[in-house]
Design a protein that fits this description.
Oligomer: single chain
Strand content: under 5%
Helix content: over 70%
Largest sheet: 2 strands, antiparallel
Low-confidence stretches: none
Shape: globular
Mean pLDDT: 94
Distance between the termini: 8 Å
Order of helices and strands: HHHHHEEHHHHHHHHHH
Strand order of the largest sheet: 1-2
Number of strands: 2
Number of helices: 15
Structural class: mainly alpha
Length: 350
């Protein structure tokens, strides 16, 4: 999902003020200078460095729903909601990197690996999450939708943590047991760990901001965005194995890391006894030879053709759901909201 450099720069221009507001709260509470400096470093290291797709999607969706350009005041308020998603993402990633013992994130050391941070990163992740609710109260407490967006953030956080739990206990990096894998487990992991906060949350926030109150509209959005989020994650799984590193920005490691991804689950469902032995012996092993053996089994199964069919079927299904929304829009929803998401995702190579 790519965004224009101008959209990114405008969105980024809002961040310094929010970072300063959060640090000012610590100042008001009488926190010492070293605590304020630490918190600012935590905020600025972990929040603004990613692709920012989720946050900018709030702004873009609000503009589509309005049907014209946002005023400067509307832009800022929707951008604040977007930055709250980016803070949620930062909270998840700081914790996730510790659980996964990751080395780098977004081209820089993971926060817990920064000098002197270590396990203090656990508390720092909590402070990133708490920052969301400080900003929501400061900027939206007077709005009718305040409780709705509070509940939305809290529910989405819990849903994402449920997905993370299933992932951690199904596919620990150091204990490989493919009998725990299944496409049903994969579905739960990707919907709960990715789709709710990456796809539904930005759109639902924009809908609340835009005055959409009909529960049926939120149900329609959910019914489209969860399959779209699942399709996005299956693409990610596929690109990890078959994407060009210079395009996806990394060398794929899902096979080495024992990830419960789409490819391995499809393979397990169709493997001959001989192929299953190869997968059991080599998946999740930390060496290039084992990885090559797994990829050879994938090639025998022609998983690329299976992925292409999955992609075509998903595109048709999601388009069908989008077309159920009247062309002129209805109850605060417009087809263009979902078409823009699908257009960014369909047949992406990175």
């Amino acid at each position: 999902m790519s965004i224009s450099s101008s959209s990114r720069e405008r969105f980024l221009s809002v961040w310094p003020e929010l970072s300063d507001e959060l640090v000012a709260y610590l100042d008001k509470e009488g926190m010492p200078a070293d605590a304020k400096a630490w918190f600012k470093a935590n905020l600025d290291h972990n929040t603004p460095g990613g692709k920012l797709n989720r946050g900018i999607s709030v702004v873009d969706t609000a503009e589509i729903l309005k049907g014209s350009a946002l005023t400067d005041a509307e832009y800022k308020r929707t951008a604040i909601l977007g930055w709250c998603i980016e803070l949620l993402q930062a909270y998840f990633l700081v914790a996730d990197d510790m659980m996964d013992k990751s080395i780098t994130r977004r081209g820089q050391p993971c926060w817990y690996r920064v000098e002197a941070v270590g396990e203090i990163a656990i508390n720092d992740s909590f402070m990133l999450e708490a920052s969301i609710y400080y900003l929501l109260k400061k900027h939206f407490r007077q709005d009718k939708f305040y409780v709705d967006i509070l509940e939305l953030f809290l529910e989405t956080t819990f849903q994402t943590e449920m997905g993370q739990l299933i992932d951690l206990i199904t596919a620990p990096e150091d204990v490989v047991d493919l009998s725990k894998f299944s496409l049903d487990k994969h579905h739960l992991i990707v919907v709960y760990k990715t789709a709710f906060y990456s796809f539904y949350l930005p759109v639902a926030l924009a809908m609340h901001f835009s005055g959409v109150t009909n529960p049926a509209s939120y149900k329609t959005a959910l019914d489209i965005l969860l399959p779209l989020g699942e399709y996005f994650q299956v693409q990610d799984d596929y690109l990890d194995c078959y994407g060009a590193p210079e395009l996806i920005g990394k060398i794929g490691t899902d096979i080495l890391d024992n990830k419960c991804g789409w490819l391995i689950n499809v393979a397990l469902g169709i493997a001959t006894p001989e192929q299953r032995k190869v997968l059991d012996a080599n998946y999740g092993q930390k060496n290039a030879e084992s990885e090559a053996r797994v990829k050879a089994v994938y090639a025998e199964m022609d998983l690329t053709t299976r992925f292409n069919k999955y992609e075509a079927d998903s595109y048709a299904k999601i388009n069908g759901l989008i077309e159920q929304i009247p062309e002129a829009g209805a109850d605060g929803l417009k087809r263009e909201v979902f078409r823009s998401f699908l257009g960014k995702v369909y047949k992406r190579t990175k």
